[in-house]
């Protein structure tokens, strides 16, 4: 079973109580960031006894609304947001699924990364205590239609280095980022997708 998630970056200041004003840093980072790219490692775990799924790849984001999330191992899979629609391409299944960007971004982790700066309209944000040497921010989706109960972002040295996503099915997805570059020069082709020939296309 292949699990698809999306997501990236911020800033950090530690208070005397051992907490950080991550919410303010997150908003400030997003307001000054037009894009970010890097690599990720992802671990998905379910209920006790369920197998753990591990994957990795690279990503690029150009705000607002454009992103590329590419899984390399153990299966190739590509997610591209072109500003209007989001494409999910599975080379093994020879299938590409397309949906409206607004439907794909609303109350999803991608909204934190590729959406606009109006986070308070979509999430309830709060600072959490420092953990594992990181400053943590929790984002609770306001919409009941969201598939996630909560999203937590771990920050260090002015960058997001981890995310934890808890969904309604008892699964926890942890994403660890590396090699992050803020506001890089990015080709427009990164955020375009044309289905290859002989691929089934499903529009939602």
UniProtKB/TrEMBL annotation:
Q: Chief localization class?
A: periplasm
Which key words tag this protein in UniProt? Chaperone, Lipoprotein, Periplasm, Protein transport, Signal, Transport
InterPro entries the UniProt entry points to: LolA/LolB/LppX, OM_lipoprot_carrier_LolA-like, OM_lipoprot_carrier_LolA_Pbac
Per UniProt, subcellular location reads as: Periplasm
Keyword Cytoplasm in the entry? The reply is no
Q: Does the keyword Cytoplasm apply?
A: no
One Pfam entry name: LolA
Give the signal peptide range. 1-20
Say what the protein does.
Participates in the translocation of lipoproteins from the inner membrane to the outer membrane. Only forms a complex with a lipoprotein if the residue after the N-terminal Cys is not an aspartate (The Asp acts as a targeting signal to indicate that the lipoprotein should stay in the inner membrane).
* Similarity section: Belongs to the LolA family.
Which PANTHER family does the entry link to? OUTER-MEMBRANE LIPOPROTEIN CARRIER PROTEIN
Q: Which HAMAP family match?
A: LolA
Oligomeric and partner information: Monomer.
Q: What is this protein called?
A: Outer-membrane lipoprotein carrier protein
